[in-house]
Design a protein that fits this description.
The chain is mainly alpha-helical. The chain folds into two domains: 57 residues; 64 residues, no CATH class. The chain contains five helices and no strands. Helix 3 packs antiparallel against helix 4 and helix 4 packs across helix 5.
């Protein structure tokens, strides 16, 4: 008995075969394949980032829905990691800025608002300026 995925694949192959002589249809199918590949790559990147966050936190889960399942030890580790990350944030922002990284990219990677990072950099640079 054919599964739903088998039937979907068979229908897809039939449609592609019927359109193989149409150059526009071939181009559209190629774009759709590229889009699907990009979606898969994005999903993989998100999964890798989530796993990295799980490992850093030392918890089995980091989803807000699963927060109710965290143990005392896991919460303590996450809170301690947060304090370390919070203390390191200004240094990391300055290092990334020195590398020429845009403030909005730094903000996105750190989970901060772009306005916060921009303001921090502006105030830091103003504090470094010699007073007249």
């Amino acid at each position: 008995m054919a599964t739903r995925d088998d039937k979907t694949q068979q229908a897809r192959e039939e449609i592609e075969a019927s359109l193989k002589d149409d150059p526009l249809a071939r181009d559209i199918l190629a774009v759709l394949r590229k889009h699907k590949a990009a979606e898969r790559a994005h999903a993989t990147a998100v999964a890798v980032r989530r796993e990295g966050a799980r490992q850093v936190a030392g918890a089995d889960v980091v989803d807000a829905e699963a927060a109710e399942h965290l143990t005392l030890a896991e919460v303590a580790r996450i809170r301690a990691a947060y304090k370390v990350a919070e203390a390191a944030t200004p240094r990391v922002i300055l290092e990334e800025d020195a590398k020429g990284r845009p403030a909005n990219h730094i903000a996105a990677d750190l989970g901060l608002s772009a306005s916060y990072v921009s303001r921090f950099l502006r105030e830091h640079k103003a504090a470094e300026q010699p007073k007249k």
